[in-house]
Structures are given as structure tokens and as C-alpha cells.
Amino acid sequence: MHFADMDYRIPRQRMVREQLVARGIRDARVLEAMGSLPRHFFVPEGLVPTAYDDRPLPIGHGQTISQPWVVGRMCQMLEAEPGMSVLEVGTGSGYQAAVLYRMGLTVFSVERLRPLYMEARERLTSLGMHNIRTLLSDGTLGWPEMAPFDRIIVAAGGPGIPEALAEQLADPGVMVIPAGRQRGAQRLVRVRKENGRVNMEDCGSVAFVDLVGNCGWSQK
Ligand code: SAH
Questions:
Q1: Distance, CA of 198 to CA of 170 (rounded, Å)
Q2: What is the spatial distance between Cα 88 and Cα 151, in angstroms, rounded to a whole number?
Q3: pLDDT class of 213 with cuts at 50, 70, 90
Q4: Element (H or E) spanning 104, and its range?
Q5: Domain boundaries in the chain?
Q6: Any bridge partners for residue 63, and if so which?
Q7: For the whole prediction, is pTM greater than 0.70?
Q8: Which protein residues touch ligand 1 with a CB less than 6 Å away?
Q9: CA distances from 128 to 21, 114, 133 (A)
């Protein structure tokens, strides 16, 4: 273990207990991943002491690392099993990609902003997560060469569900995505594909940064 990591074991265990378990996160793989990953590696230096706080944090370029509970909940909603492939749209800090990787998934992650993409790659590599595949691109178009994906998780909110993502979801498959007609306020939607049929479940209101792209919002 890295020496600096020792200082954060206690806040991390408290985060798991008070923010995840207490609010209904039961998936053992999600709890294990978030209980062991150094979230403080994924935030800007000045915010390290607040890395395990119960809120999203700015990571630069107008973007955020999601609140721990939101990461845990979305990962649990995927109902994923080790060995499945997952496409993440919005690498951001790389934290959620690392959680998915620790859960045993084969991770493909797309980010549209070059500086975040570069930083996340460097971070994930330094943690030894060489197998996470990353791409600098518009994730509303998915990653056609790597499709289909057993699971898709979108970490930014657009006006609807991008057609390319619905197409690139395997059958059976599950996608978790925030969507809504208003910027900054969405419904968290779970899309299930099974036997050629698509079912959508509204899982409550959320607030994500903009999904910007071909099938998202235009840049402000
Ligand atoms: N999962 C991230 C959260 C990042 S916030 C984490 O754990 O830190 C959402 C990210 O989505 C931002 O980095 C933003 O730049 C990115 N994003 C927005 N629209 C996108 C698009 N069309 N394709 C790929 N990434 C996008």
C-alpha cells in the first residue's frame, strides 16, 4: 500500500458505511471496489482532504467527479457480473471507470475533453489499470468498433437516449443514463434490452453535468 493512502482508510470506510450501506447499496462488488479504491487520487490536489465527502467535487473544465453515492447507485443499478463488458460515457476523473474495473468488468470509457482524458489515462495507468480502454471522442456515438456492450453507463445528462447507445447495447443488456429536456436536471433511466424488447424504468431525479455531443446538448 502507498504510504499516503493510509491516512484515508478511515474516511473511506466511513464513506462506505454512512453514504453507501446506509442508503441501500448492497452489491458486494460495488462496496468492495469503493471501499478499496483511493478516491483521493482522482481529485485535484487542493481537494484531497474532501475527497470522501458526501458531494460531487470540481475536477476542472467545468466538470465534476460524481458524489460517491451516485457512483455506487449507478454501478449497482447495472446488475453487472464479472467478465461483462461495459461502456462508460464521460471518463472525467476516471474514478467510476476504476470502480467498474475493480468490479471485474471489461471497461471501455469515452471522454470528449482532451485534458481530462489525458489525466485520467495517466491516473489509471499509475494505479496499474492498464486494461481499461479509453477513447477521446463524442460518447453519444458510442464506440462502434467495440460494440456490443453488456452494460452502458452514462455519467452526463442529455436531452434523451442517444440512438447509437441503444443500438450498441447487447441483448440482453442494461444501460443506466440520466436524461431530461432541461439542462442540469434529469431523470435517471434504466434501459433493459431483452429478447429484442426495450423497457425503460424511471429511477428518480438526478442532476448531472451536460452530455455534449452529436446526440446530446450543443456546447454552451
Ligand atoms: N465518471 C466521471 C464523472 C465525470 S462528469 C468520474 O468518475 O469522474 C461527466 C464527464 O462527461 C465530463 O468529464 C464530461 O466532459 C464528459 N462528457 C460530456 N459529454 C460527453 C460526450 N458526449 N462524450 C464523452 N464524454 C462526455
A1: 11
A2: 9
A3: very high
A4: none
A5: 9-206
A6: 60
A7: yes
A8: 63-66, 89-90, 92-93, 95-96, 110-113, 116, 138-140, 155-156, 209, 211-213, 216
A9: 28, 21, 13
Give pLDDT, residue 7: 79
Report d(CA 193, CA 79) in Å as an integer. Answer: 13
pLDDT confidence of residue 5: 59
Query: Phi/psi of residue 15, each to 5°?
Result: -55, -45
For 118, half-sphere exposure in the C-beta direction (CA atoms, 13 angstrom radius) is 4
* Ligand 1 atom 23 nearest Cα: 139
Phi, psi (degrees; rounded to nearest 5) at 107: -105, 130
Q: Which fold has domain 9-206?
A: Rossmann fold (3.40.50)
Q: Which atom of ligand 1 is nearest to the CA of 42?
A: 8
Euclidean distance between the first and the last CA atom of the chain, given in angstroms as a whole number: 43
